[in-house]
Design brief:
alpha/beta; seven-stranded mixed sheet; two-stranded antiparallel ribbon; 13 strands; Nucleotide-diphossugar_trans; Nucleotidyltransferase family protein; transferase; NTP_transferase_dom
């Protein structure tokens, strides 16, 4: 197990409840987290990375094809998995985190989108994120990917980054150089007092931005955005090329 700071997160949530509409028709018969890229399901990539970074307990929220996803998760031995059941109501990213908060504990935790996939650089990116976490300066530290090297992402970017690592939104600019790569360390205080029901995790990011405490760590390697069926083959080509 890697050596991490005593203040490093020990828990995480993998956001796996979404309907995956952009991945249709594949997600008409399975949840998006079980979609395979290069023979491995997206959620196993996330769980392997979290285990590699020393995270002992991972909450997984379930809704779409929940029984199928839970059956798959039962085949894993590590990390320890706890289910946050959203069968009754889909809560989006923010509401899903809020529902799971009692399972995540009172310390900062990692949020990991179940479709976040990348090719590593010299050091594992999640371990880099954990080691860069500084709760004295930060309320959120997110992994951001340069648009210039990312595959499968067609948006205009989410954030600009100041020299000290602080992030600010694209706002009215035509583009921004970084996209959120789907992984962040979040302080639980940002979740307190948010609305009940479904809402976006952008509510947490906006709170951190308002206090100038949203920071980013640039992903090394290559981010593979697997948002639609045609992105799978492209991601597989990149993964194969990286192993040559």
């Amino acid at each position: 197990m890697p050596q991490t700071s005593p203040r490093a997160p020990h828990t995480a949530i993998v956001l796996a409840a979404g309907l995956g509409k952009r991945m249709l028709p594949i997600t008409a018969t399975m949840p998006k987290p079980l979609v395979k890229v290069a023979g491995r399901s997206l959620i196993d990539f996330a769980l392997d990375k979290l285990h590699e970074a020393g995270i002992g307990t991972v909450v997984v929220n379930v809704h779409h094809f929940a029984d199928m996803l839970e059956a798959h998760l039962r085949t894993r031995e590590t990390p320890r998995i706890v289910i946050s059941d959203e069968r009754a109501e889909l809560l989006e990213t923010g509401g899903g985190v809020k529902k799971a908060l009692p399972l995540l504990g009172t310390e900062p935790f990692i949020t990991f989108n179940s479709d976040s996939l990348w090719i590593e650089g010299k050091e594992p990116n999640l371990l880099r994120l954990v080691q860069a976490w500084d709760p004295d300066r930060m309320d959120i530290l997110m992994l951001v990917a340069p648009l210039s090297t990312s595959i499968g992402f067609e948006g205009r970017g989410d954030f600009h980054q100041d020299p000290d690592g602080r992030l600010r939104r694209r706002g009215t600019d035509d583009s921004a150089p970084f996209a959120y790569a789907g992984v962040a360390i979040v302080k639980p205080e940002l979740v307190h007092g948010t609305p009940d029901g479904a809402f976006s995790a952008n509510a947490f990011y906006d709170r951190a931005i308002a206090k100038e405490r949203l920071y980013g760590l640039c992903l090394e390697g290559q981010w593979l955005h697997v948002g639609e069926p045609q992105a799978i083959a492209e991601a597989e080509r990149c993964l194969a090329a990286s192993k040559r």
